[in-house]
Amino acid sequence: MILGLASGRFPVRIEEDPLLSDRARARLSSLVAQVGHRLPMKTAASSEMNLLFFLLNTGADLVHWVIPETDETGRAVAPTPWVQRYLHRWEREEDAKPKRDRLARGPAEQARFLYELDPANGSFLPPGLAACLYPQLTVACPGAIRYDYLLAGRRSRLADPDWLGIIPEASFPSPSLPRVIRVTELEKLSRCPFQFYFRVLAGLEGISPMEFSEDLDATEWGSLLHSLFDQILKSYDQSGCSVRQIAADILWEDGRKLSEAIQAFATDDSLAVCLRPPLLADLIRTRLFKTVRAYWEEVLSGAIPDGMNVRTESRNEAEFPTLPGLWVSGQLDRLDERRGELVVLDYKSGREPEHLNEEIRLGFRLQPILYPWLLLRNEPSFEEAGFSYVFLGGNGRPKEVAVPGTGNAEQWLVLLSAILKRGAYLPASNEALEQLGVEKANACQYCECASLCRRFERGFRSRVSSLLSEHLGDRVKSLRGEFGDSNAQ
Ligand code: SF4
Questions:
Q1: Residue to mutate, 163, 190, 194, ligand 1, most ligand atoms under 8 Å from C-beta
Q2: Angle CA(475)–CA(478)–CA(480) in degrees, nearest 5?
Q3: Is the dihedral of CA 34, 36, 38, 44 positive or negative?
Q4: Test site for ligand 1: of 167, 435, 449, most ligand atoms within 8 A of the Cβ
């Protein structure tokens, strides 16, 4: 079946990398041609004909052409020039006319059409589409293709709670489950238990196509910034300098020391930078320099408070209240002392979120609550500790945001332990929560588990909302703001 025979879209054109050498381009071009594509270099006029000829003669006994009438925005498109020639010719020669059908746009009609192409075996039916839309058609197909498991899944999905995240086998404590949960993982649990189960307990990751990008992705960029701050502060470890004195030193002579630190650091520590072509690696170093310099300028100007750095990148652990044997763990980016007060600092490479306080109140951000708690549990000599985010990204200047009121960590952990103890990893769909009176929490992030939680399925909202009230009533109350003691102050 040859899809997408629209003019200008077939053969599929692959954009060239402007940095490819002629030799590499020629080699790539020949490899790409072997799998039926063309690079847009010196494309011969016969390119489409060659490809059609190649595909038709290496395809199968019976070939279906799919000629779109519109593009994805609904604009009309024409068949490719060679397909138009075939169509004109077939119109003239009555005997040579192939079987032509218009394919409906709706998925249900498409499923029926594909079924009718081979009613004996249903071999043109994508199994998921067929089983979901036309179970009676799929069971009618005898032979090798079996759809029973899809049909059984369809029946179970909304009827059996374990399909919606009630998983007693994954209830804590259990020797087969992790003994340590990181604070960032608890944030996932707090936002959407279903996503936590699949990402953290089942260890599933979404697959995304690899693509070459001239820039670092957000995770690489974030870890680069963390490592650079760590390295800079460690180099002043024994100096007795305050943070503002470090800023003055590092910015001296137009940031010469910072520039040297970035050159040495990016060569030794970051493969992600070194493996890029020199020009792109230099661009990343320049961006790194500007971002980190802007932070130290804010420190020097007094917009970010002065203090003494106590330590950087330290891991703290404490036992989960009400779940003996399970530990909470957190990596503290930095600890400063400011006029006798300890402050945990957490770097964020992005900008300050619009609804930061609301996210903290709902428990979607637990670092401000749990990091100071972890610190005090590990260092009984400290009496109190505050928390601040350092936002380094966005269009504005770097900014430090202090988060007050972190005294209710254990209540949050007790609330979350109810989910873990029951194995109640229910999806936190916005619609189901709204049905329970939780307005605009935006817990669902439309993550890559959407096809597993099936939040778009008919009947999902009422089924999940009744399971949420049955199993996670206290968590729902806390989201509604009715569980006062468990919310951030
Ligand atoms: S799509 Fe939304 S409700 Fe479903 S698992 Fe992801 S975050 Fe949870």
A1: 194
A2: 115
A3: positive
A4: 449
- Tens-digit pLDDT profile for residues 372-420: 999 999 998 888 899 999 999 877 799 999 998 756 899 999 999 999 9
Residue written as token pair 């007094």: 302
With a Cβ cut-off of 6 Å, ligand 1 is lined by: 192, 194-195, 427-429, 444-447, 449-450, 453, 455
Q: What are phi and psi of 377, to 5 degrees?
A: -70, -30
Give the pLDDT of residue 170: 93
Instruction: Work out the mean pLDDT of the chain and round it to a whole number.
Output: 83
Q: Identify the CA nearest to 64 among candidates 29, 131, 110.
A: 110
Instruction: Name the amino acid, one letter, at 186.
Output: L
- Token output for 313: 């990148």
Residue the block writes with tokens 């503002």: 244
**Whole-angstrom Cα distance, residue 69 to residue 102?**
9
Q: Is the pLDDT of residue 488 over 50?
A: no
Q: Is the ipTM of this complex over 0.90?
A: yes
Share of the chain above pLDDT 90, in %: 44
Q: Which long-range contacts (CB under 8 A, 24 or more apart) does 71-78 make?
A: 71/6, 71/9, 77/6, 77/7, 77/8, 77/9, 78/6, 78/7
Nearest CA owner, ligand 1 atom 6: 447
